[in-house]
Design a protein that fits this description.
The chain has 127 residues and is α+β, with helices and mostly antiparallel strands. It has one domain. Helices cover 24% and strands 23% of the residues. It has four helices and five strands; from the N terminus they run H-H-H-E-E-E-E-H-E. Strands 4-3-2-1-5 form a five-stranded antiparallel beta sheet. Strand 3 and strand 4 form a beta hairpin. It is globular. The N and C termini lie far apart (31 Å).
């Protein structure tokens, strides 16, 4: 049985995905993938994590990371260019978020990395 963390973000999943899709093409979020995801889900203040590496360590320590196909709205944490990045799953293998060295975009996760895990969109330290 899959264990899912209760998610009660200020902005719901579909609204968060809409917020992200409205920003496709924007370069304003370059190198800010964690901040982008935090703000998409409605948190105006700091997430409590220093960066995506810190977030993955925290999520792993709390057994909140999953392998396999990420459901729509999940945060997908992937390894790219010697660092961890985060995007949101759209379903059917597609993700959205600021890509390395580029704008916010929709991409196929398999084109970004072969090494990923996912979590529910939780920001337990977010404000």
């Amino acid at each position: 049985m899959e264990r899912r963390f209760h998610v009660g973000n200020p902005r719901g999943t579909e609204a968060a995905l809409d917020w992200q899709l409205e920003r496709v093409g924007s370069t304003a979020w370059q190198d800010w993938p964690l901040k982008f995801q935090r703000m998409a889900f409605g948190y105006a203040q700091d997430s409590g994590w220093q960066d995506a590496d810190d977030a993955v360590r925290w999520l792993d320590h709390h057994s909140l990371l999953h392998e396999g196909t990420a459901p729509r709205g999940a945060l997908v944490w992937y390894q790219a260019a010697d660092r961890i990045r985060v995007v949101s799953a759209l379903g059917s293998g597609q993700v959205v978020g600021p890509l390395i060295g580029g704008p916010v975009a929709i991409a196929m996760l398999a084109d970004l990395s072969t090494d990923w895990v996912w979590s529910d969109p939780v920001f337990p330290l977010g404000q």
